[in-house]
Amino acid sequence: MGKAAKKKKLKIQEDTKNRKPELMLKQRIRIIDRFELIEDAVLGILFFSVALLFSTSIHVHFTLPKLLALRICSLCLVVLWIVRLRRGKMQILPSFVLYAGAAFGLWLILSTFFALHLPTALHGVYGRYNALINNEIYIVLFFLVATLPMDIKRISRITIVFVFALVPVSFYAILQYLNLDFFPWPSGRSASTIGNPVILGALLSLGFPFALVFFLRYRSNLAKTFWGAAILLLLIAMFTTISRGPALSIIISSAIIFFINKKEAVKDLKKIVLFAIPVFVIFTLFILSSPASLEKIGQRLKDISNLKSDRNIQVRLVYYKAALEGIKEYPLMGAGLESFRIVYPRYRPVQEGQSRDVIPTMVHNGYLQLALTNGIPALMLYLSFLSTVFIVFLKKIRRTSEYVTRLIMSGFIGMTIGYLFQDLTGWMEIALTPFFWILIGAGVAFGIADNGYNEMRRWKNIGMYIFLTLVSIALMYLVFDAINRIYANRLFWQAEHMSPAKDWKQMEYNIKEGLAAVPGDFYHEDMAGILYLKRYNETGEKASYEEALRLLENAHRHNPYDIYVMIHRVDLETVALKKGLIQKPSSSVEKLVSSMLDMDKNNPSVYESAIKLRLEEKKYEDVLKLLEKARTLHPEELKYYILEGNMHRNTGNVSKAIEAFRNCIKISEAKGIYDEDWLNAKHNIAIHYLNKKDFNNALKEAKEISERMPNNVHPYNLLGDIYGISGNFDKARESFASALRIDPGNQNAKRGLEQIKQITGK
Fold first, then answer.
1. What is the pLDDT of residue 456?
2. Distance CA 92, CA 96 (A)
3. Beta-carbon neighbour count of residue 148 at 10 Å?
4. pLDDT value of position 306
5. What is the Cα–Cα distance from 102 to 110, expressed in whole angstroms?
6. 3-state secondary structure string, 522-567?
7. How far apart are CA 220 and CA 218, in angstroms?
8. b vs e for 473-504, b when ≥16 Cβ sit within 10 Å of the residue's Cβ?
9. Nearest 5°: CA angle at 339, between 334 and 341?
10. What's the CATH number of domain 710-762, 1.25.40.10, 3.90.25.10, 1.10.760.10, 3.40.50.620?
């Protein structure tokens, strides 16, 4: 090699050496960019999976699949953040945001130790699971996202993906509204993949501000058409929920965005107007496409103008009063997360409209709920934390004159204020709350993007690694917990379908496996006890009674505050008395009856359970006292007339019994209610006529039941009995056959056909 070649080689080596830091930096930037895409992909998976996942083969169709997706994605984000500590950079959170968020999270943990029922405060109410564990996951998600490097491209990418996740949700809501649903959900207001129309509306209200932001941001007609279509889609889906709070939230957030960007928005006024006209026309045509929708809108507007006519509002006001009373009782530490189900019965009023025999699980006001469950300090810390978030947002707007940046930040402000507004009538939900915490975290990350970074060449604080490792382990456990809950839920769903089919062996196996998956869970123990109670009621097997007794006592021991567990335990004793297995109720059941009446003295179901027990004991004086008190509280409660009729029939006072049954029918038909109580009353009157050999009137009553309830097996069995006793065996055979078409396993119909065969020989 010549001198010139050697000199050239040395020069290349020297240049490469000098450029090595630069090359390493570029390589590092490429790694970070790629790594950010991975993080954003996980966030996108979280958005889509939590928004869309549900299952029709478990009891809890919506919450549990979303719960599993949330925990898996949260675990992935924590692991990625641990990797980021060594490979990338982390934004420095302002101390006031860090301390406010940490204080709120720590207070939730501290106050939970003072909860009335710790398992509920940790895991949550069955079907919701929005207690301490998930709340801490939301806070962790906020801090993870808030410390990520964030520029305008990344914040745009995250919010666009979130809006895209709402597109299939919106399409499904519209299909439900048009009666084009794929699944047999109850008809009415659209709930889409969320499971609740109010929560669906709240979720759409989170995405709407960003759709509006991107419509205002992009100048091209194509982009405006695309985002205009997204806005229209969200608006129509919002309409199908018939939810007032989220609708007002959208109005508020839109007003905030236009107010902050009024100078720039004026320039696009012509395009906005041109867009608004076809949107208004299409939206109006969609509304007019269904006359039923117009009726719903009219009723909603009427309710808004006259709050006294809105039963839902009146019931919620009752909830608010009960929550305020609970806050007075537990002002500092609260009663525990998701404890409203425990507290509410103490303050239940005599009349509360449509929910008089239902115990609600939430206050329908996020602020009252938080103050009740974790104390007034928790509410103050929560509002203080959100105040720090607003400070970050406002500082970002004041620091920049760039239109796009101001526009995006105004979207976050509008979204946050809109969420806080609708939370006045809303509540936390897995299908809603994590999105809010992630989005405000992203907004904070973008708001502090120009404050500098904490370079992570090598993280020297081993404590952070230990903490995040513990969080990862906890999340792995919670992932398996969610899987076990889904598995147990699936088994119990199958067991319920096996009960009517009398597949007792498989039902036993499912219950055993389900309880093993979630040991100590009183909800599943209660469900198992109910299934064994049904089995005992049908078979009279002592073993079924003993198993139901064991399960229900375990459920009561694991949660002594649950009224429904108490009712089921008393009902088991009632059935045992009826079948002659026991001669009198146990002392523990007598205590339960007293406890029920003390804890939830205005609940009709509590009185019904106690009265049925006393009826089987033949303590008719006690029955009359309970009926008198119950009817004073709820004079038009149909089930009380059925119980009164049964009592008079047992004592031989037939005329009084018939009078009670007719009163039940009169009240029921005046209200246009044709339910099981109405059926019971009509059935008893038909039997009365049958006993008197008045076949014509008996048939008249039975036929009226079958006309009102054509898919109910009982009127056809009744018709079969009447025809059979009157000697019309052909008609009797037809009636029992109709019963079997509705319920192929119905034993009464099978026995009726067998008796006809024995009498007629065919």
1. 40
2. 12
3. 27
4. 52
5. 12
6. HHHHHHHHHHHHHHHHHHCCHHHHHHHHHHHHHHHHHCCCCHHHHH
7. 6
8. ebbeebbebbbbbbbbbbbbbbbbebbeeebb
9. 140
10. 1.25.40.10
Bridge partners for 89 per DSSP: 455
d(CA 463, CA 350): 55
Q: What are φ and ψ of residue 455, in 5° steps?
A: -65, 130
Give me Rg for the CA atoms of the chain: 32
Domain spans in the chain, listed from the N-terminal domain onward: 88-459, 710-762
Q: Which two tokens stand for residue 570?
A: 């008393």
Whether 551 and 532 have beta carbons less than 8 Å apart is answered as yes
Residue 453 main-chain phi, psi, to 5 deg:
-125, 155
pTM confidence score: 0.85
Residues in the chain where the model's pLDDT stays below 70: 1-33, 87-88, 186-188, 265-276, 278-311, 350-357, 451-461, 463, 499-502, 762
Q: Would you state the pLDDT for residue 300?
A: 53
* 554 neighbors 572 (Cβ within 8 angstroms): no
pLDDT in tens, 445-479: 999 887 544 444 444 457 677 878 888 899 999 99
pLDDT value, residue 728: 87
**Which region holds residue 618: left if phi is over 0, alpha if psi is between -120 and 50, else beta?**
left
179 alpha carbon, distance to own chain's centre: 22
- The pair of structure tokens assigned to 290 is 């269904």
Encoded tokens for 102: 């940490």
| Closest by CA position to 509, among listed 525, 527, 496, 495 | 495
User: What are all long-range contacts of 658-663, with beta carbons under 8 Å and residues at least 24 apart?
Assistant: 658/684, 658/685, 658/688, 661/685
Q: Where are the alpha helices (DSSP H) in 579-603?
A: 587-599
Give the whole-angstrom CA distance, residue 275 versus residue 117.
54
Give the integer Cα–Cα distance in Å for 479 and 74.
10
d(CA 66, CA 292): 32
Residue type, 351: Q
CA–CA separation, 482 vs 494, rounded Å? Answer: 18
- Nearest alpha-carbon partner for 420 in 209, 568, 590, 625: 209
CA distances, 14 to each of 1, 2, 24, 736 (Å)? 18, 18, 16, 99
Question: What SS3 state is found at 453?
Answer: strand
In sequence order, the β-bridge partners of residue 455 are: 89
d(CA 665, CA 671): 10
Question: Are 485 and 133 a contacting pair, CB within 8 Å?
Answer: no
The distance from CA 167 to its chain's CA centroid, rounded to whole angstroms, is 21
E strand or H helix at 91, and its extent? strand 89-91
707/712 Cα distance (integer angstroms): 10
* Both tokens assigned to 33: 């960019």
**Quick check: 679 and 705 in contact, CB under 8 A?**
yes
678-715 in b/e form (b: 16+ CB < 10 A) is: bbbbbbbbbbbbbeeeebeebbebbeebbeebeebbbb
11-46 per-position pLDDT tens digit: 555 555 555 444 444 444 444 568 889 999 999 999
